[in-house]
Amino acid sequence: MPTLVYLIISLINFYAFGHKCRIVRHGDQTTADCTRLKLNNVPTCLPLSLSGLDLNYNQISMIKNNAFKSFSNLTTLTMDFNNIDTINGYAFQGLKRLRWLSMKHNQLNIFSKIFDIVFKPLLRLQHLDIRYNINKTLDISKPMVYPYFGHHSFLTDLYMDIVQNPVFKLSGFENILKLNTIKFARCYLNQMTNDTLVDLPSTITAIYFHKCVSSISIVEADFLKPFTILQILNMDRVAIQLGDALKLLYPFTHTRMTSIIFKQISPHVPKPVFITRVMINYLMHICVKTLVLAESEIVGYEQNSLLALKFPDCLENVVFSGNRFSLALGPHLRELILLMRKAINVKFFDMSYNAINFNNIEYCNLDVLDNPSYAKEIYRKGCQIKSA
């Protein structure tokens, strides 16, 4: 009789949870799509062989101990856009094969000591996304110690929020020798000093800052010096002067970079920006493939500055969209002609949305343009500005 009761309960659970999730099998891989089901808990009656579980857009608020213990084959787990504010210490126990974990857009306090325990079992983790989790009630002005990541020797991508006074010294980054990409969202920095990021690993090749909402009063030239092999610098909606952003390129003079992307770089009270030779001095001496200076209030530039790059043959993609200046006005026409003669590898040049302001600027996807066959399909009529 107890066996029969257990079977009935299992069937009830299956029809309550399991049948709603969409189970997909590709070869020997089984994934469960449990998105938008208004789930309050992690479903249990799913195939034990699951390699991927998607719990996005539910109403889960707590992850209990051993919540995923039955799914020891999981390699991918996403729980974005829930209401998760509590994770028990052994929530991820048994997930020794997990490589991808995403929990962005929740209510987690990642500065809680519990996270030193929570992440510990995930020894094979390669990708961790815990962005958009800073609770509004958190006092972000105090020094905040980040979780210990030193157990994750395979970690390559780390996405998280950054507070005003981040403390990375106790996070074990010296043990993460494969970390190459770090993305900061909900950026609350109010200073970019030479020692802000000094405890992050030198292996980082790509760093992203998105929507730094605080007014940044101090910007020092060696802010990015720890990243000696940096290839990608992407700053989007950062409240600093464009001149200060360009100053951050100091450590990379006379080096090669893949991308320098400055988009919507301006203080909270925007001011017109006139590019001078001094402002552009560090950028001028960098061999860069993709250069973006977009929506940053540029109204003009000095001769022998913006177009006087020392390595124009390195350029492949150039975007000056959303500003208020002309490249070919007056004496600048000769500079432009000289640059175009030398920039023999340029594939894409974008000066759209200039002269007046636009509310919604649509950019051509540079990643698509780098893939000829894909670009031909997506932009078969050219990379055009869409009409309103």
TrEMBL record:
Against SUPFAM superfamilies, the record matches this protein to:
L domain-like
Transmembrane helix keyword on record: yes
* Superkingdom, natural source: Eukaryota
Q: Which Gene Ontology terms cover its molecular function? A: signaling receptor activity
* Record localization: Membrane
Biological-process GO terms, alphabetical: signal transduction
Matches recorded under Pfam families: LRR_8
Keyword set, alphabetical order:
Glycoprotein, Leucine-rich repeat, Membrane, Repeat, Signal, Transmembrane, Transmembrane helix
Q: Where is the signal peptide?
A: 1-18
Note the topology in the membrane.
Answer: Single-pass membrane protein
- Name a GO CC annotation attached to this entry: plasma membrane
Q: Which PANTHER family match?
A: PROTEIN TOLL-RELATED, TOLL-LIKE RECEPTOR
**Identification of the protein by name:** LINGO
Q: Which organism is it from?
A: Mytilus coruscus (Sea mussel)
What lineage, starting at the top, does this entry show? Eukaryota, Metazoa, Spiralia, Lophotrochozoa, Mollusca
